[in-house]
Amino acid sequence: MQIKEAIFTKSSSTWKECPAERMPEYAFIGRSNVGKSSFINMLTNNSKLAKTSSKPGKTQLINHFLINKEWFLVDLPGYGYAKINKSIREGFNEMIAGYFLHSKNLVYMCVLIDSRLEPQKIDLEFLRTLGENHIPFVLIFTKADKLSGTKVRTNVQTFLDTLSAEWEELPYYFITSAETGLGKDEFLDFIEQSNKEVAEIFQQ
Asked: Is residue 204 part of a domain?
C-alpha cells in the first residue's frame, strides 16, 4: 500500500463525537514522547500531518485522518506523562478508554513502544487493559535508528519475552524508524491485508 492522500477529518473530545462513517480505523497510541507523531508523519509522507513537539502531551483530542478515502488513521493522546495536571490526565484516560471500548470501526490499536528502553510498566499495564477488554492490537517499536540492530533486536525480544509470561499468543509487531523509514512498507502492507480481511464486515 502507498498512502497517496491523508486528510484531516475531525478532532473529538469523546468517542461519541467521532466520525459516523462506517470505515476501518487504526488507532495509534503510546507513552508520551515515544515518537508517535513522527511515525504518523513518516507513514503518511506528510511532515506536518500530526503535530510534533519536544514537549510530550501535544495530542489532546481524538484526531481522525482519512487515508486514501479507504480507512481512518486515528491519533490518540499519549499516556503516562506525569507532568500534566492530574484531572487532565484522568480525562485523557477516560477519553481513550471510551474510544477503544465503544468504537464500532476499530480494527487494531497500534501501540508504540520505544525500542531503546527496557519493558516499561505503564506499557505493559496498558496492553493488559486492552487484552482484558478483548481489544486487538499490534506493537510498533520506534526509534530503531538510535541503537545498533543487534541491540534493538535484543530489546524487542526482551519485551516479547516479558509479554510471554502472561500472554498465550503474542501480537504482530514491527520494528520502525521515523528517520529512516524502516518498517514502513511492512506496516502498510499489514494494513492493506487487514483491510481486505475486514472488507465484508464494513460493507454490511
From this structure: no
Q: Indicate the residue type of 149.
A: G
pLDDT attached to residue 36 = 93
Q: Nearest Cα to 103, choosing from 80, 130, 139, 78? A: 130
- Return the residue matching grid coordinates 506525569: 82
Residue 27 burial class via C-beta count within 10 angstroms: exposed 0-12, middle 13-18, buried 19 and up: buried
Q: Which of 111, 98, 115, 119 is nearest to 187 (CA)?
A: 111
Per the structure, the count of domains in the chain is 1
Cβ burial 111-145 (10 Å sphere, 16+ → b, else e): bbbbbeeeeeeebbebbeebeeeebebbbbbbbbe
**Entry pTM:** 0.90
Q: Which domain holds residue 54?
A: 6-199
pLDDT band (50, 70, 90) for residue 53: very low
Beta strands in the chain (DSSP E): 6-12, 25-30, 62-67, 71-75, 106-114, 137-142, 173-175
Q: Is residue 148 part of a domain?
A: yes
Provide the residue type at 156 as one letter.
V
Q: How many residues does the chain have?
A: 204
Residue 53 DSSP one-character state:
-
17, 76, 84, 91, 159 from 87: Cα distances, Å: 21, 18, 9, 6, 31
